[in-house]
UniProtKB/TrEMBL annotation:
ATP binds at residue 265. Gene3D superfamilies: Transferase(Phosphotransferase) domain 1 (1.10.510.10). This is Protein kinase domain-containing protein. Residues 41-66, 415-440 are annotated as: Disordered. Keywords: ATP-binding, Nucleotide-binding. Coiled coil: none annotated. GO terms for molecular function: ATP binding; protein kinase activity. It comes from the Eukaryota. The keyword Transmembrane does not apply. Belongs to the protein kinase superfamily. CAMK Ser/Thr protein kinase family. CHEK2 subfamily. Residues 89-137 form the FHA domain.
């Protein structure tokens, strides 16, 4: 185990020996700790002596401390002696500005001032990219290939927060290291005191010299080791699955840029049809429908529709929404037996039906009673419910965009329409009804995610 003087530990993670070679540079000698154990370089016992037994306790200590590999150990005592910590711990190829040297000047894909690691006032630890070719931060194997330029990643939340993503890796032009903050989760008093001192050290009002301004960091003509990613799409990483259905799955996700907890609906694409497409290629028409419906949800906020924040199309189609803690009913009663669940559900539905029975009769009440019926033979499916709503005039298809919406006015409108017909007044057309838009009580029913909406004849359109 590391003592409370340790701030961070970096170990090589790439397979090309880039990180291990960089660790052994003379500039990193104050942080470098060589591997212990391994194969002996010379004889340690006589030929007639028995082979010593394996020391399991020593092996366990080496495993916990990362002693089986070369590593860089950043300690508070040495960090406090450094100059130029105003922006955090700097990493790059410039010996003038870098506290951690990632290679000599001209190393492919690594900039003079590549990234910095900083701690904010809430004791959260961040990585900020300042490179030309970008950095990729992986969380437990997620997003390891998502290279970004000028991006920010959350490396560790407030002290005491469990690290749910391990390992956390940093890729700088193919030089990959795994970074760990071994004392951050324990929240020891001495560690917190050291961390506060580091924060105060980083706030010192230092005036950088000419070299500290990074004026020596000229653009290199050496191409990056990998293709540069020009996209600036936000990066999310999944925490756990919180729901699933025919449409796909919903995950609790975390936004890397600010650590905000959100929900992500990963939509399952339809199976590939007979048209020739590559394996895993999404149907363009289906994707266009998803984009269209996402735009409608985003541009038409409604209290009955979940707000959407963004949509990601690669590596999978995911719609980002707000996350509501303890909003999953299965989580709220996961220790309840199946029999109790059924009893509770039947009681709850009975209460709803009793409330509906107390209402005045009408086509809308009749539809709700069919939707909540406990008897499976009497219960209306989503398809039959839409057909009934269209037939009874509760729903209408908007002529503007073809979507199905609640008919404005409901039962009252039907009575008014009947009275107008009796008086010789023509009822409003579908186009006229669609023109009565922006009604705050009209709920838009999206069609494509469910495979289409039936018309009054029952055909999916």
């Amino acid at each position: 185990m590391y003592d409370h003087d340790v701030f961070a530990v970096l170990i090589p993670y790439d397979t090309r020996n880039k990180a291990n070679s960089a660790f052994k540079l003379a500039h990193n000698v104050k942080w470098f700790q060589p591997a212990v154990g391994g194969v002996a370089q010379s004889a340690t016992i006589e030929s007639r002596e028995p082979t010593p037994a394996r020391d399991s306790q020593l092996e366990e200590e080496e495993k916990e401390s990362g002693g089986a590999v070369d590593r860089l150990v950043l300690t508070f005592s040495k960090l406090m002696q450094l100059e130029g910590l105003r922006d955090g711990v700097q990493a790059g190829t410039s010996t003038a500005t870098s506290h951690i040297l990632l290679g000599h000047r001209g190393t492919r894909g690594v900039s003079a001032r590549h990234y910095r690691i900083a701690v904010d006032d809430e004791m959260r630890i961040w990585l900020h990219d300042h490179s030309m070719h970008g950095t990729a931060v992986g969380y437990g194997g997620q997003n390891m290939d998502q290279v970004r330029v000028g991006e920010t990643w959350l490396l560790a939340d407030a002290p005491g927060t469990a690290n749910i993503f391990s390992p956390t890796t940093i890729d700088s032009g193919g030089l990959i290291v795994a970074i760990d903050f071994p004392n951050h989760q324990g929240r020891d008093a001495q560690y917190l005191e050291n961390l506060c001192a580091l924060i105060e050290k980083s706030k010192e009002n230092e005036v950088p010299g000419v070299q500290g301004l990074g004026l020596d960091s000229q653009p290199t003509t050496e191409p990056p080791s990998e293709a540069q990613t020009v996209s600036d799409r936000l990066i999310y990483f999944k925490h756990r699955e919180i729901g699933s259905g025919a449409f796909g799955r919903v995950f609790k996700i975390i936004r890397a840029r600010d650590g905000k907890v959100l929900a992500g609906k990963v939509v399952t694409p339809p199976p590939t049809n007979s048209q020739k497409r590559r394996r895993g290629e999404v149907d363009p028409a289906w994707l266009l429908d998803i984009r269209r419906e996402y735009t409608i949800m985003k541009d038409n906020p409604h209290p009955n529709i979940v707000q959407v924040f963004g949509m990601r199309e690669w590596p999978e189609i995911m719609i980002v929404m707000p996350y509501f803690p303890s909003g999953n009913i299965a989580q709220a009663g996961k220790n309840v037996s199946p029999g109790q669940w059924r009893t509770w559900a039947e009681t709850w539905v009975d209460m709803l039906i009793m409330q509906l029975d107390d209402q005045e009769e009408g086509t809308d009440i009749d539809l709700l009673q069919g939707m909540f019926a406990i008897n499976q033979e009497r219960r209306l499916t989503a398809r039959k419910g839409l057909m009934k709503g269209l037939k009874d005039g509760l729903f209408t298809r908007r002529a503007v965009d073809g979507l199905v919406a609640c008919a404005v006015g409901g039962q009252e409108e039907e009575e008014e329409k009947a009275a107008n017909v009796a008086g010789g007044v023509e009822p409003p057309t579908a186009t006229q009804r669609a023109d009565a838009e922006d009604d705050p009580d009209a709920t838009i029913l999206l069609s494509r995610l469910g495979g289409g909406v039936p018309d009054s004849s029952g055909e999916l359109v």
